[in-house]
Amino acid sequence: MPISSHSHSGQFCLHAQGTLEQVIQEAIRQGFHTFSFTEHCPRKYAEDLYPEESHLTPQDLFNTFDDYVRTAKSLREKYADKIQILIGSETEYIRPDSIDLLRDLVVKYNLDYLVGSVHHVNTIPIDFSSELWHKALEHVDGDYEKLFLDYFNHQFTLLTALQPLVVAHFDLICLYANEEAMQVFMSSTKVWEAIERNIQYVVNYGGVFEINTSAFRKGWSVAYPKPQLVKLMQKHNGRFTLSDDSHGPHQVGLNYHRGKAYLEDEGIHTLAVLSRSSEGIRTTFQMIPVSQIWSTFVGKNGVAL
């Protein structure tokens, strides 16, 4: 019963490929039990548009999100007998009023859940390109420790305000970090105190941490989050779920064989499988042995794991 708690499509995300229906058709072909649509939330200021969105307006993003939810609900009904589909959104925390926007979206669209992500530090994107990551570093006068602290403090603001069910790519700030930056990351007491604070908060409110295999296709030898963070999450009895963070049908289930090995290496024996509830609670989850996750998985090349 393979799962993914985080995905995108080219229909609603300019740096992805394929339609939402093509994505879910591929998930069904691979034997997925549960698959979540979690397109990015809209952004309401023109200065927050990415370079690829220069021809758009913030209102275009809101219109696209409206179309996304409509399409996702239609596909959930169409494929209800083949796969469980959840409909959520991946968050943006750019500035404090991002929180109000996200709360409004959850209520307006009755979203199943939020994927809690931070893609900006001090309003500058940190995972879109190496150039923008270094621009964020320049904003804090080249101080690696401050960049990391600001990221995890933004994350804490998001966590405390919204308590997202799934916390995505916890250490995304490290994507473009060089060896010098990572030395600071690993050695800074202040950074690790902030990390531990965030982990404890997620555990206390009942959230789950995402093991995200997209890190492999971005050049990492491990998934998000890195082993040192996984160990700290385990120390505090953190729970995990699994995501491909796919950006189109070509990435559905991509590198799940490496994800399986990573789970084994890190001693993760159970994963949270999300489910919709008809009893007044929007989304719940059940902890399932990892061995069951792969029981019906076909995979990209038609070979089960």
From TrEMBL:
Catalytic activity: L-histidinol phosphate + H2O = L-histidinol + phosphate
Swiss-Prot/TrEMBL GO biological process terms: L-histidine biosynthetic process
Alphabetical list of Gene3D superfamilies matching this protein: Metal-dependent hydrolases
Protein name: Histidinol-phosphatase
Pfam families: PHP (PF02811)
UniProt record similarity statement: Belongs to the PHP hydrolase family. HisK subfamily.
InterPro entries per the UniProt record, alphabetical: Histidinol_P_phosphatase_HisJ (IPR010140), PHP_dom (IPR004013), Pol/histidinol_Pase-like (IPR016195)
Organism name: Schizosaccharomyces cryophilus (strain OY26 / ATCC MYA-4695 / CBS 11777 / NBRC 106824 / NRRL Y48691) (Fission yeast)
Phylogenetic placement of the source organism: Eukaryota, Fungi, Dikarya, Ascomycota, Taphrinomycotina
SUPFAM superfamilies listed in its UniProt record: PHP domain-like
Sequence ranges assigned to domain PHP in this UniProt record: 5-214
Annotated keywords: Amino-acid biosynthesis, Histidine biosynthesis, Hydrolase
